[in-house]
Amino acid sequence: MSAGASLAVETNGGNESTESEFQKGVKHLCERGITKVPTKYIWPIPDQPNSRNGNSSASNPNLKLPIIDFAKLQGSNRSQAINSLKNACEKFGFFQLVNHDIPKDVIESIIDVSKRFFELPFGERSKYGSPVRCGTSSNQNKDDMFCWRGFLKLSCQPLSDVLPLWPSSPVDLRQAVLNYSKNTKYLYLMLTEAILESLGLMDITNNENENDEFREFKDGSQLIVVNCYPACPEPDLTLGLPPHSDYGLLTLLLQYEIFSNGKYRSLIHRVLVNPSKSRISIASLHSLPFNSVVQPSPKLINEDNPRRYMDTDFASFLDYSSSSESKRKSFLESRKLT
After folding, report:
1. Is the distance from CB of 283 to CB of 251 less than 8 angstroms?
2. How far apart are CA 257 and CA 332, in angstroms?
3. Would you tell me how many other CB atoms lie within 10 Å of the CB of residue 67?
4. How many other C-beta atoms can be found within 10 angstroms of the C-beta atom of residue 136?
5. How many CB atoms lie within 10 A of CB 336?
6. Does the pLDDT value for residue 211 go beyond 70?
7. Residue 46 above 90 pLDDT?
8. DSSP 269-333
9. Residue with the larger pLDDT of the pair 198 and 255
10. pTM to 2 decimals?
11. Residues annotated as region Disordered (predicted)?
12. Cα angle at 123 between 117 and 126, to 5 degrees?
């Protein structure tokens, strides 16, 4: 879920920033009044937004996402909604969810407090450590290029332990994120239940929703990621996020990967930036517990549909994301069996 957020970018000149300035992030650079995209943020021509050499699946302005009515998943037309959900997951890997019942004030509060967080001075934004991450790139010490974004990542597991470690400024941030995380966790569980049903792995009419497989989803991890994409003076040179697929089981945005044994798609997507408007977006990322092994569901493997992926875990993902191989192919591709 996202909303526009106006953050002025002055254009009073300025030279190429030093390495230490880059480490402070793109929001800090914009506040200094840059009028050119620094070299550190310029992506190679094949990866730039208007390049014809880029990944075509990451840029399709005519793509119309399917719409899933969450209310119908809870009503008498559930079977029809399940079929629509199955089609969306198989063909797209993304869908727009309507009538999800997350209160309007919960959404408005987290958007408002997120905007105010990124308006704080750099020193206030940058003082937090694990389980809080605030930065501009996945690995600011190793990445050749930086993304045109600032982010705040808040671990939500277990809430009783991590809540006191979340930023204390703005003063209402913790409560706003707490409300949002609880609502999205409920939504995640309801969608997961529906997705398992669409895969033929669960029948809620037989009260199987408390089986071991679903219980592991209930005990899974949650990460709230707040992104700030400031207005960019040269948006055709950079990206808010490069083409990627999310590593979890479900992001609100939704995608299922290894667990479905390739039956449900994981769509490559990227984030473009705007020359005149800044934007705040908020994602709730859900996965199995960090120490769990993710594997294709045995119920989806047979002679006609052989196993397509090797077992993996979150530690394997972290190791791969910091390796040189990650620049050549995605983590999901690296787990494919030949």
Report:
1. yes
2. 8
3. 12
4. 23
5. 13
6. no
7. no
8. EEE---SS--EEEEEEEEES-TTPEE---GGG-SSSS---B--EEHHHHHHHHTSGGGGTS-HHH
9. 198
10. 0.80
11. 1-20
12. 70
Two tokens at 143?
Answer: 């990445």
**What are the E-state strand segments in the chain?**
2-4, 67-69, 96-98, 132-135, 150-155, 221-229, 241-244, 250-251, 269-271, 279-287, 293-294, 312-313
CB 88 within 8 A of CB 95: yes
Residue 69, CB-side half-sphere exposure with 13 Å CA sphere: 10
H-assigned helices in 41-103: 70-73, 78-91
Highest mean pLDDT: which range of 18-32, 125-139, 267-281:
267-281
* Burial class of residue 137 (count of CB atoms within 10 Å of its CB; 0-12, 13-18, 19+): buried
State percent of the chain over pLDDT 70. 75
CB of 331 closer than 8 Å to CB of 254: no
Let me know: does 231 contact 220? Beta carbons within 8 Å: no
Q: Report the chain's mean pLDDT, rounded to a whole number.
A: 78
CA dist., res. 273 & res. 48, Å (int): 11
Q: What is the mean pLDDT of residues 308-331?
A: 74
pLDDT at 157: 85
Count of beta carbons in the 10 Å neighbourhood of residue 112: 16
Q: Which residue has 């993710």 as its token pair? A: 294
Instruction: State residue 28's pLDDT score.
Output: 79
The two structure tokens encoding residue 267: 């769509």
C-alpha dist (Å) from residue 129 to 29, 132, 137, 154, 258: 22, 5, 15, 10, 31
- Distance of alpha carbon 135 from alpha carbon 6, whole angstroms: 20
Give the residue-averaged pLDDT of 314-332. 71
At 112, is the secondary structure helix, strand, or coil?
helix
CB burial of 241-275 (b: ≥16 within 10 Å; e: otherwise) equals bbbebbbbbbbbbbbbbbbbbbbbbbbbbbbbbee
